[in-house]
Amino acid sequence: MTGKTGSKTETRSASAKRSGSCGDLQMAPELMMELACKAAELVVERINRLHGEDAWEGEFRQELEDRLMGDPPEAGRPAMEVLEQAAREILPVSLRLDHPRSFAFIPTSPTWPGVLADFMTSGFNVNACTWLVASGPSQLELVVIDWFRRWLGYPEGAGGLLTSGGSAASINALVAAREQAGNPEQATVYMSDQGHSVNIRAARIIGIRPKHIRMVPCDGHFRLDMEALVRAVAEDRAQGLNPIAVCANAGTSSTGAVDPLEKMAEFCEAEGIWLHVDAAYGGFAIVTDQGRKLLRGIEHADSVGLDAHKWFFQPYEAGGLLVKDVRTLERAFAVRPDVLQDTIWGADHPNLSDRGLQLSRSFRALKIWMSVQTFGMAAFRRAVSKGMELAARAGEYVSEHPMLELLSPVSLGIVCFRVNPADSGLGEDTLENTNRAVLTHIFWDNRALISSTTLGGKFSLRMCILNHATTWDDVKETLEAIAGFGEEAVSNLAHT
Ligand SMILES: Cc1ncc(COP(=O)(O)O)c(C=O)c1O
After folding, report:
1. pTM (2 d.p.)
2. CB of 319 closer than 6 A to ligand 1?
3. Is the domain of 226 the same as that of 294?
4. Per-residue model confidence (pLDDT) at position 494
């Protein structure tokens, strides 16, 4: 094997020097270095500038189309010019998800080793599809998956793969669930009415008819109502339908609510129904003591999806899926075409493409591994805890503020609230209009970005605090601005 790396390989530099030119799609090593240094410089400068800039930057379609639409050039132009144009005109025109005041949706703030890992993975041109094609990367993915397994409290024999994100994790999990159930006709899938839309889509993709996707109501804290689930399953069985999977939330994206995982696992086991936990957002809370308590019961699920590109500080895309028995995934996905017969090295040398929907796969494990090796788990635990602490503090601030009202219990890193001055007697429509106006003000007139959701019919402002670089000042000043805009909006009402 070692002979393969020795004599045959001539460095690009030597080859370029010898021929005095580069191929059509090649570059001289000096230029490659110059461009890579420039790219690194532009990215580091961006990160250092971030705090002083707005969390959101965007443009309307026509402006961007005028700027960017055009035929691909027949002849190229200087690479440095192209690089700088990308950094100036394209890349910055987007939500800065890693801005310390980026509180909308589910933000993320990648670590630098993670960013570099993606660059190196591309440079080494890894395809993490099979053991033969990428044995080092495959082994590293098994290492990272084993870390996840231990954090989740899963047994030996559990396993999985890294995916593009929570969407792919849910699809893979539901395929495994369907096959485990024997792919019955008239199959049904259940989730709470707070379940993420990707689970609805995953159910559709595996062939569940929309009318057989059950949205189970929640309790007052936006957690799935167990009795309603039990009833729904019993009614469906009585109608001759075949329940195959329940998707539980371990951190809904609206409020951060965690479903009653222990009870759901007990019920699903007794009923022979696959339990998938969508922990895309909340899953990495498991590395902290507080998170482990909140997610108790997750270890009993048949599968868990969790996104390192959310609360484990990695660049997109870095999702993961673990199943309690890795053979359930392999039975569902392994296909052995003749053209890939050379890649079958036996059970000790798994082909990760046999565990999910992709054959060609990017090497996502490296970013997670490099980040953890560089900073250590203690730093990751502190960073995840910090989000929960800041969210709890924001919740207290809101509860004590005379202009603000908490609309759901703070859970994981999410705070849902609205402007509602104490004793104002404002009706629901007026409150909604007022809070929409506040949201618009923050969007256009403040460095921070927050988003909204609807909770039990009430329009709610929503802050998701996950960034390891966010400080209490970032949170408090944003809340102060919201209260200030709220006061303005309410006094405008009084004058109309
Ligand atoms: C709870 C939850 N599940 C699933 C997803 C989808 O994950 P992805 O965007 O990585 O596919 C999200 C995304 O925000 C989420 O918050």
Report:
1. 0.95
2. yes
3. yes
4. 75
